Amino acid sequence: MSRPEVQAPPEIFYNDEEARKYTSSSRIIEIQAKLSERAVELLALPDDGVPRLLLDIGCGSGLSGETLSESGHQWIGLDISLSMLNVALEREVEGDLILSDMGQGLGIRPGVIDGAISISAVQWLCNADKSSHEPRLRLKAFFGSLYRCLARGARAVFQVYPETVAQRELILGFAMRAGFAGGVVVDYPHSTKRRKEYLVLTCGPPSLGTATLKAKGEDEESCSEDESSGDEENRTVCISDRHRPRKKQKITKKGKGREWVMRKKEQMRKKGNDVPRDTKYTARKRKARF
After folding, report:
1. Gyration radius from the chain CA atoms
2. CB of 81 closer than 8 Å to CB of 14
3. 214-244 pLDDT tens trace
């Protein structure tokens, strides 16, 4: 069975029926609890009894937020599915809920968040659900706004299901460009069913006091972000668009079309240079023969 993110956009896939079925599943509840507990563990928050303000990105119906509440922290949950948030309201979760598309930025005040977690959500940004969606721009907007709202030194932990190694590198690359330090922690790297990947990021450069993160495994071995299994040989960046037909763009060999020529001519006119007038033949490619 394919992953939800390759079947439909999240606000459509998680409709009223799916949201209730998801939240009532004892198996899903157990999995969400384990993943959330591991994410909180990787956040490495100070054990001083002081509650922190955390962000739950892609909070859904609040299953992962319950783990944050049980840990004694306050949290804000964001999700794009109104049906999921309605279920969370019915369950009377303790966190504040926001209907939001993380691909458009988070819109939270700078430096007020002490940590962030996300369970099975960030990989949705690699899909082009609308003609206006450009995965790279959405990843840039998300990680840029996340970096701004986190306190310096705070961590963000994202449990993800990348489709390929290249998609994992795409996500991690935009996180690094935003200013984050960190990498990928893979729990049970040699197990097909238990393997889980966590993107662990630190807001700002890594400090000398930062503890080395170890992945969980049968032999308690750590797995670095460069380690990959034999079935992950595809190095092509995979951006799933669910077979959406793409519009053909007119690109010349030099990449300089009519718009570029018109813009350059206008710049020359502003400088006072004598520029030939614009006609229907401007920037038109000449034929090789008469």
Report:
1. 23
2. yes
3. 667 645 444 444 444 444 433 333 333 444 4
HSE-CB of 53 using CA atoms within 13 angstroms: 10
CA 19 to chain centre: 21
Paired tokens of 159: 């449990």
Asked if residue 123 lies in contact with residue 160, where contact means CB atoms within 8 angstroms, the answer is: yes
Token pair recorded at residue 127:
């899909």
Indicate the length of the chain as a whole number.
290
The answer to whether the predicted template modeling score (pTM) of the entire model surpasses 0.85 is: no
Q: How many C-alpha atoms does 172 have within 13 Å on its Cβ side?
A: 22
**Percent of the chain beyond pLDDT 70?**
76
Interaxial angle between packed helices 135-149 and 165-178, expressed in degrees from 0 to 180 and rounded to the nearest 10: 40
Terminal Cα distance for the chain, rounded = 59
Task: Give the C-alpha separation, 37 to 51, whole Å.
Answer: 16
